[in-house]
Amino acid sequence: MLNTLSGRFxxxxxxxxxxxxxxxxxxSVARYREDYLLARLERSQIAxxxxxxxxxxxxxxxxxxxxxxGVFNIVLRRDEARQLVLSSPMxxxxxxxxxxxxxxxxxxxxxxxxxxxxxxxxxxxxxxxxLRDAGLLIxxxxxxxxxxxxxxxxxxxxxxLSAVISVITALMLxxxxxxxxxxxxxxxxxxxxxxxxxxxxxxxxxxPTATIRELRxxxxxxxxxxxxxxQALRQKERMAQLGGAVARVSHDLRNIxxxxxxxxxxxxxxxxxxxxxxxxxxxxxxxxxxxxxxxxLAFGRAEEPTPVMTLFSLSPLxxxxxxxxxxxxxxxxxxxxxxxxxxxxxxxxxxxxFRAISNLVRNARQAITGTGKPGEICVSARVEExxxxxxxxxxxxGLPAKAQQHLFQPFQGGxxxxxxxxxxxxxxxxxxxxxxxxxxxxxxxxxxCFVIHxxxxxxx
Length: 460
Description:
- It catalyses: ATP + protein L-histidine = ADP + protein N-phospho-L-histidine.
- By secondary structure, the protein is an alpha+beta fold.
- The protein folds into three domains: about 5-170, no CATH class; about 210-305, Helix Hairpins, CATH 1.10.287; about 305-455, Histidine kinase-like ATPase, C-terminal domain (Heat Shock Protein 90, 2-Layer Sandwich).
- Helices cover about 55% and strands about 20% of the residues.
- The chain has a five-stranded mixed beta sheet with strand order 2-1-5-4-3. The protein has a five-stranded mixed beta sheet with strand order 7-9-10-12-11.
- Strand 4 (about 125-130) and strand 5 (about 135-145) form a beta hairpin.
- Helix 1 (about 5-55) runs antiparallel to helix 2, helix 5 (about 215-270) packs across helix 6 (about 275-300) and helix 7 (about 315-330) packs parallel to helix 8 (about 350-370).
């Protein structure tokens, strides 16, 4: 029971209602005591009227009047004269005097609690104002025994009533909470459990139905999360299928490229100057393609191998990238430039750095040629604050907003029609493998600029 939300709410409601009743109980008891004493003063004033009506009364009548008033003596002050109207033998000394004429709330509460908690009968003096201005003041002497008994009876009635009210209130709130809060939560939990059994099934996605604003917001958030998760699972499944297809293609492609490598020896023996100049580049390109296929087959997943870190010169590598791109440009009006210091040495995996820069340059070239307008691509490098910085900038059309939102996500960041959107995702993974970062520094209608930061670390 206490482990449930409704059960705890029931207990807390009962406790809080009882606390509220106690806060009401204390001033109620104080008010009851004040009314009791004022009633004694009123009855005493009425008893004194019998004496004021005549000069003398017999002893028996005087005693009867005092008993009816519930006091031992009555003093009435009229015209500045203090007069003992009625009196009887006092059973002891007066222990306290209470003046109701200037009583305050805290004072009444303090006196009431003191009278309620003191079990010993005591003799007290009470002073008040006579009714209808029948004198300056009226003063009585009485004991506290009967007062305390009636206060205890009143307190018990209040506590019993409070308990009944708290139980009824707690029960009503318990039923209301179960109906308005617990039941909708259980429905949501049921939807979550159903969705967890088959998250790829879009039919199990929660449809918000709650009318309570907070629950509706929770259902909306849950629906959004489940929708995104279902889409991610489907995307993951498609990528797994694509990975299997890539592995099969890589296997056959590796065999084809291996056969192509066998012919490179003959090509290198050619006396044609153009062939001699192009043959090493062809050999290197085929070797990289074979290495990429073997890496894909070896890992069987879309992850890059750990980079083999070596210290190498960046300028020749960038020059080779630009030379390959010049061959791909053909008749397009795209100019390539590089600004890499000849003595700049960086630490990294040359093959992976080559692929990263090549992907960025290729993306820029395809963006420019897609516009049908001339453009320029520049690769620059420098040392900056303990890191190597490589920038690839272009004068292309820039990236659209949708592409910027999914810039480094596979199959979602593509800009070119028919593109896979894998280029930037591959570059980011390669750069991360070197402990670096890839960022889009700027993009607008006049072009884009991607920046690679590679930490220097220990280059010794």
